[in-house]
């Protein structure tokens, strides 16, 4: 660390995320906790609609031209150079890199800028690791090489994963050393903002899926499950809250979503900002994803006291515990998905019992306070116990 860098008593932290809105939705709680613990907080991201909100928090925002879908070598090199320039200017005591591209580019930029400490927050194994095809295979090779060059075995690099399966996979593939990896469950939820509300006893019985509209999230299987249940007389209404992500190759085209809207009790709501209120009007939360880190939408639903239906895959099974606060089904199985939803639809007492357990888990395991405490424990290993208190 250079003489002009900040001291451990007031460390300088740089959060690196692909886009500003993701920082606000998934890392704002942690950044506030860092500020309250005495840190000077900086954020590097592609700046869009979230810029004013980040500035209003008092965090220094540094634009970096991240493009999550970008593959142009010149443009991607420019993003690495811009990030390295930010790191040289900020001189962070710790760079907290969130999700795949910020981890890859941030690790190189930190090496170039001689950032003394790095936390790589793996937000799930994601698109690159969840499917076949030559393009994904090539990306996997590149990611593995990058991890081994810039992250694996580095003494001042730690990684945070959100579930034990991802930890095991990173070790098995030789991408990180076991002692580098810590499990912190999710991004944290504000349990005062997301709170239980009395469910409506009158039909329809609402099943909410809050997610990006991606095939990999199991949205196609959910639409098929809705079709299968349309004639069951259960009075179900399926709500899809979220937009297609045009920067993700697995995005569901808008015309497909519009075609589903209004059929078999399914409604596509698009992007919603009133998720706590929307959850309060629903009876069940569902996410039939193929793989997750730890889905914030299910954690928020649990905090709202809803029973869950999810797939038995990494990430989902951390928050949806079968027979305890929800029901797990195999991925890519619309019939099993329909059966689980029908089970909860027919049994209000089961919904109430599982919803109460969801709330307990949200308060004790997945709250913003619990996640901040787990993350601070990782920071203390890198600061050798000197921060945070």
Would you kindly provide a written description of the structure presented here, covering whatever features stand out?
By secondary structure, the chain is α/β, with parallel strands linked by helices. The protein has two domains: 12-188 and 367-382, Rossmann fold, CATH 3.40.50.2000; 205-364, Glycogen Phosphorylase B (Rossmann fold). The protein contains 16 helices and 13 strands. It has helices spanning 20-26, 28-36, 51-56, 73-90, 100-113, 126-129, 134-150, 164-172, 219-229, 254-260, 275-280, 296-303, 316-319, 334-345, 348-364, 368-382, and strands at 12-19, 40-46, 60-63, 94-98, 118-122, 157-161, 181-183, 205-210, 236-241, 266-270, 284-287, 308-311, 326-329. The strands form two sheets. It has a seven-stranded parallel β-sheet, with helices on both faces. The chain has a six-stranded parallel β-sheet with strand order 10-9-8-11-12-13, sandwiched between helices. β4 (94-98), α5 and β5 form a beta-alpha-beta unit. α12 crosses α15 (348-364). The longest helix is centred in the first third of the chain and has 18 residues, at 73-90. It is globular. The two termini are 21 Å apart. The model has no long low-confidence stretch (mean pLDDT 93).
């Amino acid at each position: 660390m250079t003489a002009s860098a900040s001291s451990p008593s007031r460390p300088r932290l740089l959060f690196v995320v692909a886009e500003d809105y993701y920082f606000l939705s998934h890392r704002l709680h942690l950044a506030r906790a860092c500020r309250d613990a005495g840190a000077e907080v900086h954020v590097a991201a592609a700046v869009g609609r979230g810029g004013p909100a980040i500035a209003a928090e008092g965090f220094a925002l540094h634009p970096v031209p991240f493009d999550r879908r970008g593959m142009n070598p010149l443009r991607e090199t420019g993003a690495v150079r811009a990030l390295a320039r930010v790191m040289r200017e900020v001189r962070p005591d710790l760079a907290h890199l969130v999700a795949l591209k910020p981890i890859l580019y941030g690790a190189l930029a930190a090496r170039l800028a001689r950032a003394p400490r790095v936390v790589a927050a793996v937000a799930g194994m994601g698109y690159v690791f969840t499917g076949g095809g030559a393009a994904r295979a090539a990306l996997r090779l590149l990611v593995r090489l990058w991890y081994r060059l810039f992250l694996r075995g580095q003494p001042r690099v730690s990684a945070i994963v959100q579930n034990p399966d991802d930890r095991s996979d990173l070790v098995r593939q030789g991408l990180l050393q076991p002692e580098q990896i810590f499990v912190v469950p999710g991004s944290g939820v504000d349990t005062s903002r997301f709170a239980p509300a009395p469910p409506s006893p009158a039909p329809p019985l609402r099943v909410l899926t809050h997610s990006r509209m991606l095939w990999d999230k199991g949205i196609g299987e959910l639409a098929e499950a809705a079709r299968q249940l349309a004639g069951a007389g259960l009075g179900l209404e399926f709500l899809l809250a979220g937009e297609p992500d045009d920067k993700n190759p697995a995005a569901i085209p808008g015309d497909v979503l519009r075609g589903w809207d209004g059929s078999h009790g399914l409604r596509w709501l698009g992007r919603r900002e009133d998720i706590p209120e929307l959850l309060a009007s629903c009876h069940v939360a569902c996410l039939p994803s193929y793989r997750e880190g730890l889905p914030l939408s299910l954690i928020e639903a649990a905090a709202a006291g809803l029973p869950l239906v999810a797939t038995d895959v990494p990430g989902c099974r951390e928050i949806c515990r079968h027979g305890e606060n929800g029901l797990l089904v195999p991925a890519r199985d619309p019939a099993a998905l329909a059966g689980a939803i029908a089970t909860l639809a027919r049994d209000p007492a089961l919904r109430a019992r599982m919803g109460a357990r969801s709330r307990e888990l949200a308060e004790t395991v997945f709250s913003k306070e619990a996640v901040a405490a787990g993350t601070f424990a990782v920071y203390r290993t890198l600061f050798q116990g000197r921060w945070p208190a």
